[in-house]
Design brief:
Helices cover about 55% and strands about 15% of the residues. It is of the alpha+beta class.
Length: about 290
């Protein structure tokens, strides 16, 4: 007898989902699904799974909730471990695709949301009854959306900068909210997940600039060589701050809020200077 291959089954569902605007047949016929794409915690590769979901506000809307039930198994599913390591995920609903930060609910909020999930989909209560682990409820928080603006490379630069500014502002707000509740000895998952998403995106953005955009622009505009050297040095300073911030998530200590504030000052000044110098150059290239 052949054994069940979950990966092959999931791939069939994924292909059907994408071919039919989110509608699938078989055991999921009539059910609403999403496709959740996480980044492998060890492999670094994209990993897509079809999942059922419940809306936080019921049929009235709100964030989407996904549940790490794994069919009632005693271990969390792989996609849950992935999003703890890399919180930025892609969500496909069949009619749209968007980026989200995946935030597992904690404590009383987890219990409240799980009760809501069970009211909507009682089968999850049966899964919980069959395992000693607390089945996670993950809130998919759509990330900051930059209003449609100019196109081209200049527009993309502004989009990324806007995303980084918005996520850092949210992190600062969450730090201020957590401090009165016991200080920085431990961080809630809401703050941790958004902070990690910010750090990972910032690292990728600066590496992409250093390896691709800046060498190309320097070839076209040799007079900007010194500017790119200075910006590269700023990238290294910000990278060191980002690494400190990421390490501090597991043991934040008394200086965590100061680290966040220093990162904010350094990054805002860096982004402002970069935009002032580069946007005219990028717009001229595309004129």
């Amino acid at each position: 007898m052949s054994s069940f291959n979950a990966a092959s089954f999931n791939q069939v569902v994924i292909e059907e989902f994408r071919a039919n605007a989110g509608r699938v047949g078989g055991p999921f016929e009539g059910s609403e699904l999403i496709l959740l794409t996480t980044t492998g915690a060890r492999s670094g590769k994209p990993h897509t799974v079809p999942l059922g979901f419940v809306r936080e506000g019921g049929t009235g809307g709100g964030h989407l909730l996904v549940v790490g039930s794994a069919g009632g198994a005693d271990r969390h599913p792989a996609w849950y471990h992935n999003l703890l390591s890399r919180p930025l995920v892609q969500v496909e609903t069949g009619t749209e695709e968007y980026e989200a930060v995946a935030v597992p609910a904690e404590g009383a909020r987890r219990d409240e949301l799980f009760a809501h999930v069970v009211r909507e989909e009682p089968g999850y209560g049966e899964y919980q009854a069959g395992t000693a682990r607390a089945i996670p409820v993950v809130v998919l928080q759509r990330t900051h959306e930059v209003p449609a603006g100019e196109g081209g490379i200049a527009g993309k630069l502004l989009d990324v900068h806007g995303w980084l500014r918005a996520q850092l502002a949210l992190v600062r707000e969450l730090v201020r909210e957590e401090e009165p509740r016991g200080g920085p000895a431990s961080l809630g998952l809401q703050l941790r997940q958004h902070c990690l998403a910010f750090c990972h995106t910032l690292e990728f953005h600066h590496k992409s600039e250093d390896a691709g955009l800046f060498p190309y622009l320097e070839q076209q505009h040799p007079h900007l060589r010194e500017f790119f050297r200075r910006i590269g040095a700023e990238h290294r300073v910000i990278a060191a701050l980002q690494e400190e911030l990421a390490r501090a998530l597991d043991a934040p200590g008394a200086g965590f809020s100061e680290r966040v504030e220093r990162m904010s000052r350094e990054l805002e000044a860096h982004l402002d200077a970069e935009e002032a110098q580069l946007l005219p150059v990028l717009r001229a290239l595309e004129a």
